[in-house]
Specification:
Blueprint (H helix, E strand, L loop, with lengths): L8 E2 L6 E2 L1 H17 L33 E4 L4 E4 L10 H18 L8 H11 L9 H15 L11 H13 L3 H11 L16 H16 L3 H13 L11 H13 L17 H14 L8 H17 L3 H27 L1
Antiparallel strand pairs: 1-2, 3-4
Amino acid sequence: MVRGSEELCTSPHVGGSVDITAYISRQRTLSQTSNGGSPGSPMSPASPDSLLDYDMDSPPPSPFGWRGRMRHDSDSGTITKAGSSSGKPRNDEDDRLIDKEEERAAFLANQIHRPSCVDIEVQLREILNQQRKTGGSILGVVHCEMAKYHHLGRFCDREDDRDLESAMFHLTQAANCGVLEAIVAMAHIYLQMPNDVLPDVKVEPSQDNTNDGVEYMEMAAEAGDRASMIQLARAYDSGLNLGTNRERSWTEALHWYESAVTMAAEDESGEYNATMDNPNHQLIARQAEMFRDGGYNMIKDPQRAGELYNEAAEEAMAAMKGRLANKYYMLAEECYGEMDEEEDVEGEE
């Protein structure tokens, strides 16, 4: 009964409706017959003849009543067991509906509740999520939102009473569950950089915190965050904010510069950093300088440097930077000239 009038409710059959009162009464009749019927009744579970009425594909009779799915025939107004014969020949549409019902039943049977434990969530991600580093964790998103609520003071009366330690705890759990936003925020907090999630949370600068920050930054870079790629590349390039567990390496810097330049897809959180804070022509030009100078595990290669300067010039021209493009073209010619000089020196020797 809805708003004083009787309405037809959707039946278990996909293509029809049924009076819910009649439907419930029929279900009760079937249940009472199966539970309290005489041993010789057709629907009694203890009757040998009753086993002949069931289909081979249907589940066996239950002492607690019939647990199979019921189907409603919109033409005759009768309700029958799914897969049983109702006196009419089954057509392709009936078979298709039965298949959909079975698929939905299997889908619902596989819906298993997962515990809200971060340790178990991390273990499941390690087992089931080898290729994808972040994303897909509802528990992690909940922890990230809880961190924001603590930071905004939603659980206290005054702003001075905010529990920032709880905010940091929830943000850490969110990062452990693979939430990219939390991972980037943790990296910025430990590396003394501004962040948008918990801007008021600060940690003491130390080598251990720097090492943790670089670990989080590398996780974000592997997940496809372009800003993290560039930050990590510059850390390997200059050796600053690199911590004690890593050494300055231009080969590693080149890898992350190339990853940031060639990135043309969304990251694992479904976003793409298309801002021009670090345009591609600047990153390519820096790679060319590294190949031109050499050092820090990188072999000097003037030819490759000239090629990269030409690529940087094309990117600058596409960005409407004509004067900068001309500068890159001139540097490319200088690199090619250095290559000819090296060949002349080798010939004299």
